[in-house]
Amino acid sequence: MRIFTYPSAEAEEKIRIICSRSIGADPEIEASVLRIIEDVKNRGDAAVIDYTNQFDSKELGVEDIVVTDAEFNLARQSVDDRFMDALTTAADRISAFHTRQKSNSWFTADRPGVILGQMVNPVDAAGIYVPGAAGGMTPLVSTVLMGGIPAKIAGVKRLAMVTPPRADGSINPHLLAAAGIVGIDTIYKVGSAWAVAALAYGTRTIKPVDVIVGPGNIYVTIAKKIVSGMVGIDMLAGPSEILVIADKHANPEFIAADLLSQAEHDILASSVCITPDAQLAERISAYVKERLAGLARRDIAQQSINSYGGIMVVPDMDTAVAIANKIAPEHLELCVKEPFEMISEIRNAGAVFMGEFTPEPVGDYIAGPNHVLPTGGTARFSSALSVEVFTKKTSVVYYSRAAFFEDADNIRLLADTEGLDAHAASVNVRLTDS
After folding, report:
1. Domains of the chain (ranges plus CATH)?
2. Which one of the listed residues 330, 333, 356, 360 is annotated catalytic?
3. Which residues, 6+ apart, have CB-to-CB distance to 171 below 8 Å?
4. By C-alpha distance, which of 176, 173, 162 is closest to 205?
5. Would you call 265 a catalytic residue per the annotation?
6. Interatomic CA distance for residues 24 and 324, integer angstroms
7. Does 383 score more than 70 pLDDT?
8. pLDDT tens digit string along 172-201?
9. Which one of the listed residues 98, 265, 331, 371 is annotated catalytic?
10. Is-catalytic flag, 30?
11. How many helices (H) and strands (E) does the chain have?
12. What is the reported pTM?
């Protein structure tokens, strides 16, 4: 893993390359996704099943799209108790964390004759997208929990899940078990852009929803981008990323393992370590090389590290924090002796993992906070998936006659300034009628 000395032209160029990653797609991919969405809008179930038969399962018919109660029951019987215990523990912790995010409606009567407020209500229906992951062989059960639990806590009345079927038309039983823990109402055996389109616009079999959340490949991401506005979405997720700030007390083998945990995701993933300790940087680089040789996905990890990885040796910790805030990483690890003394300086990060025994996978599965996080520098202005994504806020305004008369002249003045005569007239008619 290459070591850069900061500041230098090479280090600045590497940071520029990391920050310039984007989720933009080839125009041909965008055009292809748009055609799929239009096809689903026009042909409904027929289009959905055609794409599913072509790309996922030749065995599936329209009548098989919805997972049955019998499939749910069989799935629960086929997973072992240790898995269910771990799943339940994770679900309980995710629920406890997200329950604290729930906001309440409020009203105030600070001015005589005026009542103002905000009503907080859940959306009526939400859809959770769960990727197929190696043809269903590596079920992303954590995605089910992270997407579904906040929706349930928000009070969403109807919760649907879409996920690509395996070649035989089935869904991995671990995914179904996770959906049962969450309380998802309906599961549809569809994936990719056609699943997003079906959730957004509805078909005879698949009911439309108000919000779509969950990660996916570039086709899923572009589909979410296209339908956003028709429905709400959580975010446009890009390749995974990790940034580690380390001091001289950090364990280099731990850091090497953490960097590779994200590099193996994708050739576009970014894994960066920033430290003022040049000797630590050398040891981390050596451990990365050693561990890389034994990885099943070493070719992907190596390409990721070459393109978007690196170790930055900086003059001091203030510089390390400044670079981290500039990159605004999805995952930020503070592998320093006193992480709580540094946390107040962190402004831009999807999630912060503090101390050497808090690696990023703790947050992926069991800690409680959501692992659906902003990527590509968007942590500068956006946040993790939360209960709030599944709610909407409605302002409430009440004026008494006396309060209206008190504000009428100011309202008319502002309306006249904007040249909106009809706005002023709606005030005037009430004044003359009195």
Report:
1. 3-23+238-368 (3.40.50.1980), 27-104+122-233 (3.40.50.1980), 400-432 (no CATH)
2. 330
3. 67, 71, 75, 136, 163, 165, 187, 189
4. 162
5. no
6. 23
7. yes
8. 999 999 999 999 999 999 999 999 999 999
9. 331
10. no
11. 17, 14
12. 0.94
